[in-house]
Design brief:
Structural class: mainly beta
Number of strands: 33
Shape: globular
Distance between the termini: 21 Å
Number of domains: 2
Length: 529
């Protein structure tokens, strides 16, 4: 757990801490040589496959002594010069620039794909403004770069905003119109919640395809390396109200005697400090989080399935839960609360943080969505991760092909077709405890909205269908219209039972039903205290 907590520190909006991997020497000539044919995922896959045939070598993190002595604020004072931005002079729909290498010494190599071939973009200190720092960059040699970011006309036809950033191991994040950076995605998660130490694959090389015309997506290729696997990635980025990132990947497993316990596909990483379901005394803000819930859509293979909503929490000890299924329609870490009044934070503006909805396209099959949550003392650390774990992994020496889509969504985001939870609040029940009950009664008040509920006739009978794990007893579950808003509300009371394992979490599920017709997603919560 300590390894995950350390590396997954939340990157600021400036993407300032540069956590990238250096390029291994093998294949350096092939990576920079011009090609007569168009660059493709197959070219990157060839390089990834070649790397699996040689022992993994940890990248050197050595940096010039001047950089190694810099603190966080010193590093933030280094900025890429606007007039050096890639493609700016060509008046293209996208532009790109690069982060400087930081004191950690992790660097990436960057290449540009043009009609004339693939060309290296070498490090040049003249492209950076070093601010107040007194440095001697001309003596540093070719450091590479600390990361990549791209810009587009996301919010204005006259100004290019930041669109997507690749910064740290295999981390990346993108923005839709009107959004501010929040949660991140990763190329791959390895043994994130298992007993073994987590492994952090790194993007070591990037290839940026020079845009051809307005309307075309931005295409970025990346080469990934790690102790037990390598990977080739293609990202197609389409900016808009919800920016869509189409991801294609080929993962190669190295032949090693250290088996992978958990391979996490399409991983998402976020922060939940406190919220309506877990308020924080003494803080003026009602909620602080980049995501407030995990949403999952299952596929039963017959055109149906179940929609699930798991409110996030900041637990006292690490929580790992899984949702197993034969087929997945999608999953995401969502920021449903979109009103400023939910947060009252004029600086962080959490209501503008994106949701990330993942839609599988190829290579997922049967498996499970795994959710990891652990304690965070403040909002500067990510403490939530969600990813897909395939039932079958490729054996050592083999490969797997993946394709999926990430939609970075704002107010208009993915929702179940019938009804969904708008808030869930926890309190304490005060009726008499049963003789076999343990501790206080637990009460939840859950609000719902959606077209299936709006279509109900006046006076329609709605039932609250509730179940709990064997270590709890449901005392009351009622569904009724909120007289103040007209929306549907569920009140749920339950009590913990005396068992051999009193610390075992309670699993509870609830949804709304009318005439045996499901009206809402399933609210599923884990009660740990």
């Amino acid at each position: 757990m300590q390894a995950f907590f350390h590396v997954s520190q939340r990157l600021s909006g400036c993407a300032a801490r540069a956590h990238f991997a250096a390029l291994a020497c093998a294949g350096a000539l092939a990576l920079s040589a011009p090609l007569a044919h168009a660059w493709s995922l197959e070219d990157v896959a060839t390089l990834a496959s070649q790397r699996t045939k040689t022992p993994f070598k940890e990248a050197s993190h050595a940096v010039p002594a001047e950089l190694a002595k810099m603190d966080y604020d010193d590093y933030r004072d280094i900025r890429f010069k606007p007039d050096s931005t890639l493609w700016r002079a060509d008046k293209l729909p996208f532009e790109a620039n690069f982060f400087h290498v930081g004191r950690q010494g992790d660097a990436v190599r960057v290449h540009q794909i043009t009609p004339a071939g693939v060309k290296r973009v070498p490090y040049d200190p003249a492209h950076f403004d070093f601010g107040k720092n007194t440095l001697s960059p001309k003596n540093w040699g070719d450091l590479g770069y600390g990361g990549v970011r791209a810009f587009s006309h996301l919010n204005s036809p006259t100004y290019k905003d930041e669109l997507i950033v690749f910064s740290g191991a295999s981390y990346f994040r993108a923005l839709g119109a009107g959004q501010l950076y929040g949660l991140s995605a990763r190329g791959l998660a390895v043994d994130t919640a298992g007993p073994a130490k987590e492994e952090f694959p790194r993007f070591t090389d990037f290839w940026l395809e020079k845009p051809a015309k307005e309307g075309d997506p931005l295409t970025i290729y990346a080469l990934m390396d790690s102790e037990r696997m390598t990977g080739a990635y293609r990202f197609s980025v389409k900016p808009g109200e919800q920016t869509v990132t189409d991801v294609q990947a080929r993962i190669f497993m190295r032949a090693t005697d250290k088996p992978v316990t958990t391979l996490g596909l399409a991983p998402l990483t976020s922060m939940f400090f406190f919220g309506e379901n877990q308020p924080r005394p003494g803080d003026f803000r009602p909620e602080v989080h980049d995501s407030d819930g995990l949403m999952i859509a299952t596929d039963d293979g017959k055109g149906g399935g179940e929609w699930l909503w798991r409110p996030l929490q900041n637990p006292a000890s690490p929580l790992v839960t899984s949702f197993k299924m034969k087929s997945l329609k999608g999953f995401g870490l969502m920021q449903r609360d979109r009103a400023f009044s939910n947060y009252e934070d004029t600086e962080a503006r959490y209501e503008k943080r994106p949701s990330a909805w993942v839609t599988p396209v190829k290579g997922f099959g049967a498996g499970r969505v795994e959710l990891l949550q652990f304690a965070t003392p403040d909002e500067t650390h990510d403490n939530v991760a969600a990813y897909w774990v395939p039932e079958k992994m490729p054996p050592p020496g083999q490969s797997m092909d993946l394709a999926y889509q990430i939609a970075w969504q704002g107010k208009n985001q993915q929702l179940p077709p019938n009804g969904w939870v708008t808030q869930s609040r926890r309190g304490t029940g005060y009726s008499k405890l049963g003789a076999d009950a343990l501790g206080q009664q637990i009460q939840f008040v859950i609000d719902f909205a959606g077209p299936a509920l709006d279509a109900l006739a006046e006076g329609a009978k709605v039932e609250a269908i509730t179940t709990a794990s064997a270590n709890a007893r449901v005392l009351e579950s009622l569904a009724y219209r909120n007289p103040a808003t007209g929306a549907w509300r569920m009140t749920l009371r339950l009590e913990r039972l005396k068992t051999a394992e009193p610390a075992q979490p309670i699993e509870v599920r609830a949804f709304l039903q009318h005439n045996h017709q499901t009206l809402s997603e399933t609210w599923t919560n884990l009660i740990t205290n």
